[in-house]
């Protein structure tokens, strides 16, 4: 019953012990805090950097040039936008050098809404980063996938972007990460006592006690997962909105809804999505980035180009409103990004549509 | 009187001449439509050649990592980069070993020698050098990170990033930071935008050793490079070196790429000193000039016969080891 941040922590620990991970850094990433969401707590090779996003991304690129495997964190993706040209540089280095250099590095950053973070702690980044070739981009929605995707990132020779849906960071998983204590209340408590730093008091002498049976369990980059099988509609999502899609499918009794967790945004698993659309003939893409030039629009284009004459309804995208930011007030945030009710409504509309 | 050994001085002169003739041939290629764009570093040879001769060249952290900008031909030609390969990049042929016809001339890349890909955006190298600096610090030894850029680029945030990251308390990085101050950013003068007397003064706030010197002088450059390099290699701390140099052919082909006679020409200045010290004769100089001129004309002729990139290759190497369309 690890949370996503605990899963990431355990994967990073496994990485530094077994996969050659040498540097984990960023703003407040090292002790005593271990990241503002605690995803790097207890990691031996973690350290605090200057408050300088361009320096952080530049340092990651340089470490990769030197073959020193690193994970660098940008504290919120809202602050990654001033590094765009460096992200472009990382993405094109292999191509521009005609294959001479590759950059084995990972940038991770929390994304999306869900914590009432207002204008500068709620942004999404999937639409922007999927527009930069050369990156592999992952976004887990469960702790098990968070672990497995991190292990895959740490073994990939290319720049990898690890998007952490901040609304799900403290949600407990229902699948066991190999090596973690049993999935019950006692196991949850045991894990917390092992790898969570004390919330109050002196942390300087605290050391984590890592589960001994952690493995190189990985989720292959580029592989999506059918999380609910159905026949009437395909719903493709990732990150924060994925559990909402599952919940919607469970609540819409009588409707047969197939839900796919994309998990990797690039390279995305088009064969799996295609297979599902061929079966259901109806598709809804759901994510919370702003709706104009949204990654879901690209998936709609593929859908139209490949399945135009097979579809029984117009493909639909449910995404965040195209507004400059997410307002702080509860009513504003709820109205800005897809919620359970809007997802249910969209599913019904696509299924009800008659051609 | 020159102080360095005749062997070193004559070798340096030969490489300066060679570098200048490479750049002038590249400019001719541009003007003869054998390339779309020229940018380079004629006028920086008196500093760059000595720097190139002092690089610890090789692959991996036992050797220097180079994060260079696009005016650095006189650094990597002395290291052994072949002139024909720069002509290939100018002509954007498939045989361009640095980018396969994908990038501008003087945007080289050579992993075998730790030369990371040169980029067009100003000063990104001041950010990426932080990473190899950290790796060098962790590794130990005498390998260092060397980064260079222009004076205008020091207004970018990466310049401040580099100074801050290189001087973190107890975490200082072995980075030789070089500013080639030619007084211009395309058409904008440094004097109209910068109030600091010397750019190197900005290092003082961080406790970084620094020096501003005459980069048009071979001996001043050599002594400064040796002192700074020795410090960075042994103390494992940064040094900011500001070299005042000339920009002899303007910013790039975008500004005409014509010789600017009002600028100090370090090559002719050095020739005068060598002649005054009887280390070389005018006949020998003329012979060397003729040799490089003829040699490079022949190399360009060869390059013009070489294949251009295959359009089907546009997706190749978007990812490591990947070829063909990837999605």
Question: What would your notes on this structure say?
Answer:
- The complex is a heterodimer of chains A (355) and B (327).
- By secondary structure, chain A is α/β, with parallel strands linked by helices.
- Chain A has 11 helices and 12 strands.
- Chain A folds into 2 domains: 4-195, Rossmann fold (3-Layer(aba) Sandwich); 225-352, 3-Layer(aba) Sandwich (Rossmann fold).
- Chain A has a 7-stranded mixed β-sheet, with helices on both faces. In chain A, strands 7-9-8-11-12 form a 5-stranded mixed β-sheet, sandwiched between helices.
- Chain A is globular and about 65 Å long.
- The N and C termini of chain A lie far apart (45 Å).
- Chain B is built from 9 helices and 7 strands, in the order H-H-E-H-H-H-E-H-E-E-E-E-H-E-H-H.
- In chain B, helix 1 (6-31) crosses helix 9 (282-303) and helix 2 (45-53) runs parallel beside helix 3.
- Chain B has one domain (6-306): 3-Layer(aba) Sandwich (Rossmann fold).
- Chain B has a 5-stranded parallel β-sheet with strand order 1-2-3-7-6, with helices on both faces. Chain B has a two-stranded antiparallel ribbon with strand order 4-5.
- Chain B is globular and about 55 Å long.
- In chain B, helix 6 links the parallel strand 2 and strand 3.
- Chain B has helices at residues 6-31, 45-53, 73-79, 83-91, 124-139, 157-166, 218-235, 266-276, 282-303, and strands at residues 65-67, 145-150, 175-181, 184-185, 188-189, 209-214, 239-244.
Condensed summary:
Chain A has 355 residues and is α/β, with parallel strands linked by helices. Chain A has helices spanning 4-18, 53-65, 84-96, 126-129, 143-154, 185-195, 241-251, 270-280, 295-307, 330-336, 340-352; strands at 23-26, 46-48, 70-73, 105-111, 136-138, 159-165, 225-228, 233-237, 257-261, 264-266, 283-290, 316-320. In chain A, helix 1 runs parallel beside helix 5.
Task: Tag the structure with descriptive keywords.
heterodimer, A: 355 residues, alpha/beta, Rossmann fold, 2 domains, seven-stranded mixed β-sheet, five-stranded mixed β-sheet, 11 helices, 35% helix, B: 327 residues, five-stranded parallel β-sheet, two-stranded antiparallel sheet, 9 helices, 39% helix, globular
């Amino acid at each position: 019953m690890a949370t996503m941040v605990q899963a990431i922590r355990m994967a990073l620990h496994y990485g530094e012990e077994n996969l050659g991970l040498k540097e984990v850094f960023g703003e407040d990433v090292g002790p005593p805090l271990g990241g503002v969401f605690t995803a790097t707590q207890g990691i031996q090779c973690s350290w605090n950097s200057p408050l300088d996003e361009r320096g952080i991304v530049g340092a990651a690129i340089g470490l990769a040039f030197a073959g020193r495997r690193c994970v660098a964190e940008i504290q919120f993706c809202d602050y990654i936008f001033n590094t765009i040209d460096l992200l472009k540089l990382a993405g094109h280095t292999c191509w521009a050098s005609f294959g001479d250099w590759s950059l084995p590095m990972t940038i991770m950053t929390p994304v999306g809404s869900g914590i009432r973070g207002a204008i500068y702690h709620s942004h999404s980044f999937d639409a922007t980063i999927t527009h930069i070739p050369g990156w592999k981009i992952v976004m887990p929605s469960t702790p098990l996938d968070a672990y497995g995707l991190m292990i895959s990132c740490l073994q990939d020779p290319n720049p990898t972007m690890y998007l952490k849906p901040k609304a799900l960071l403290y949600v407990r998983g229902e699948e066991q990460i190999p090596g973690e204590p049993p999935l019950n209340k006692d196991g949850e408590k045991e894990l917390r006592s092992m790898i969570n730093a004390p919330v109050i008091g002196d942390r300087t002498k605290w050391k984590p006690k890592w589960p001994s049976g952690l493995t190189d369990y990985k989720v292959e980059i580029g592989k999506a997962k059918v999380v609910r099988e159905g026949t009437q509609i395909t719903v493709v999502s990732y990150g924060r909105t994925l559990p909402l899609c599952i919940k919607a499918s469970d609540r819409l009794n009588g409707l047969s809804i197939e839900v796919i967790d994309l998990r990797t945004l690039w390279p995305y698993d088009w064969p799996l999505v295609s297979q599902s659309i061929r079966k259901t003939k109806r598709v809804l893409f759901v994510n919370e980035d702003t709706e104009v030039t949204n990654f879901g629009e690209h998936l709609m284009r593929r859908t139209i180009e490949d399945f135009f004459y097979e579809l029984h309804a117009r493909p639909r995208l449910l995404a965040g409103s195209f507004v400059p930011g997410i307002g702080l007030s509860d009513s504003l945030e709820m109205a800005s990004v897809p919620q359970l009710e809007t997802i249910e409504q969209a599913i019904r509309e696509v299924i009800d549509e008659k051609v | 009187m020159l102080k360095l050994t005749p062997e070193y001085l004559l070798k340096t002169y030969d490489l300066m001449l060679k570098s200048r003739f490479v750049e002038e041939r590249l400019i001719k290629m541009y003007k003869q439509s054998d390339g779309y764009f020229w940018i380079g570093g004629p006028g920086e040879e008196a500093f760059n050649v000595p720097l190139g001769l002092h690089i610890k060249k090789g692959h991996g952290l036992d050797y220097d990592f180079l994060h260079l900008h696009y005016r650095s031909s006189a650094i990597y030609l002395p290291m052994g980069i072949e002139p024909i390969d720069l002509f290939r990049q100018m002509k954007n042929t498939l045989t361009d070993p640095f980018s396969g016809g994908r990038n501008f001339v003087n945007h080289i890349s050579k992993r075998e020698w730790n030369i990371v890909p040169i980029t067009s955006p100003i000063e990104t190298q001041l950010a990426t050098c932080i990473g190899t600096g950290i790796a060098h610090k962790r590794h130990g030894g005498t390998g260092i990170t060397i980064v260079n850029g222009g004076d205008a680029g020091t207004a970018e945030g990466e310049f401040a990033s580099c100074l801050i990251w290189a001087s973190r308390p107890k975490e200082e990085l072995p980075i030789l930071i070089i500013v080639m101050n030619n007084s211009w950013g395309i058409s904008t003068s440094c004097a109209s935008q910068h109030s600091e007397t010397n750019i190197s003064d900005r290092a003082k706030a961080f406790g970084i050793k620094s020096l501003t010197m005459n980069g048009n002088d071979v001996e001043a450059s050599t002594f400064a490079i040796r002192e700074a390099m020795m410090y960075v290699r042994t103390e494992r701390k940064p040094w900011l070196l500001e070299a005042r140099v000339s920009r002899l052919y303007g910013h790039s082909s975008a500004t005409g790429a014509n010789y600017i006679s009002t600028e100090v020409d370090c090559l002719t200045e050095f020739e005068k000193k060598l002649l005054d010290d009887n280390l070389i004769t005018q006949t020998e100089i003329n012979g060397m000039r003729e040799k490089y001129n003829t040699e490079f004309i022949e190399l360009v002729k060869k390059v013009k016969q070489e294949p251009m990139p295959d359009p089907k290759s546009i997706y190749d190497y978007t990812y490591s080891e990947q070829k063909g369309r990837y999605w």
